[in-house]
Amino acid sequence: MSQLLVKSVAKRAIAGGYFRRYLATATGTRVLTPTFGVPAAASGVQVERFSVVLVGWKRMMSTAAEPTSSPPPSTEKAKKSSELPMEKVERGDMVVSSYWGISRPKIKREDGTEWPWNCFMPWETYAADLSIDLHKHHAPKTFMDKVAYRTVKLLRIPTDLFFKRRYGCRAMMLETVAAVPGMVGGMLLHLRSLRKFQQSGGWIKALLEEAENERMHLMTMVELVKPKWYERLLVLTVQGVFFNGFFAVYLISPKLAHRIVGYLEEEAIHSYTEYLKDIESGAIENVAAPAIAIDYWRLPKDATLKDVITVIRADEAHHRDVNHFASDIHYQGKELREAPAPVGYH
Ligand SMILES: [Fe+2]
Ligand SMILES: [Fe+2]
């Protein structure tokens, strides 16, 4: 009984059950229930203020395209919104604040159509370098390299056992991990730059770009694979362990940390190659590419899953080269800032 209760609470917390109830309130589909000790008959203005903030939050966290045409607010809603101190007006699921003067100019695609994404802009898109060598490998020679290589190979065992050939799920889960090292490295270099009054040679930006690129891989995979509640729970656990572990390793030895990432990227190339084999054999359906991927990688409108996996694999090969290079710089007894960073390509 108690096991069932724990499972139910975990499932709802991970799947955002409670939060969805809040969001449902924000979009006006339900009233607040007494679950949180808030009576259903709470003040309308308070509920509306809360709703506006949550809708804004939902918009910011969303990777979905913004609706090109928003319905005008209803008279009643507009009246309530005008009572808010910041004169926030709700339009569809978008929040506009006239008080802070924050607004996004209208942006167009090259073909003149409206740019639908808030999470990235046209100047952040790029065409992946498909000519990159996928077979490069850093042969581990030193003790530290061997530790890095063996660590990554060991980490692959539970991954293979858990996911087997479910490459969509596997890729989605691994991207939640892959986006961590760039952020940790970028953050630590940022703090170092502040502490030492030194430029970073562009490496802060390069590593943060890598983290963002990996996150876009995840945002793309999530359009193709819907994670189950226990997979979300696994992500929480793995992120907690991996973030702290990688943070400690990067503090102690950036040389080792970058080498580990280099080998992780080599494994990612292998996984995506297997994914492509399953698409080519028909074991995985070659569905249409998600809209977010078409815009992010400047793919043709009729691009497919195979095209998306091909460009993601090319990105991983680039991350492999950047991280092995970063480790090599440390091996030469130098700091990253002494070698120009590969900024501008993810
Ligand atoms: Fe990735
Ligand atoms: Fe990567």
Layout of secondary structure:
Blueprint (H helix, E strand, L loop, with lengths): L1 H13 L2 H10 L17 H18 L13 H7 L6 E4 L2 E4 L45 H21 L3 H30 L6 H22 L4 H24 L1 H28 L9 H6 L8 H27 L15
This protein binds fe (ii) ion (2 copies).
Pfam families: AOX (PF01786)
Family: Belongs to the alternative oxidase family.
Membrane topology: Multi-pass membrane protein
Keywords:
single chain, about 350 residues, mainly alpha, two-stranded antiparallel sheet, 2 strands, about 60% helix, globular, binds fe (ii) ion
Helix content: 55-70%
Write down the secondary-structure element order.
Answer: HHHHEEHHHHHHH
Shape: globular
Hetero compounds: fe (ii) ion
Instruction: Give the radius of gyration.
Output: 23 Å
Question: Approximately how much beta-strand content do the residues carry?
Answer: under 5%
Report the span from N to C terminus.
49 Å
How would you characterize the largest beta sheet?
A: 2 strands, antiparallel
- Determine the structural class based on helices, strands and strand pairing: mainly alpha
Summed over residues and divided by their number, the pLDDT gives a mean of 81
Strand order of the largest sheet: 1-2
Number of DSSP helical runs: 11
By DSSP, the count of extended strands is: 2
Low-confidence stretches: 16-47, 52-57, 66-75, 77-87
Explain this structure to me?
Strands 1-2 form a two-stranded antiparallel ribbon. The chain contains 11 helices and 2 strands; from the N terminus they run H-H-H-H-E-E-H-H-H-H-H-H-H. The longest helix has 30 residues, at 167-196. By secondary structure, it is mainly alpha-helical. Strand 1 (88-91) and strand 2 (94-97) form a beta hairpin. Bound molecules: fe (ii) ion (2 copies). One fe (ii) ion binds next to helix 9 and helix 11.
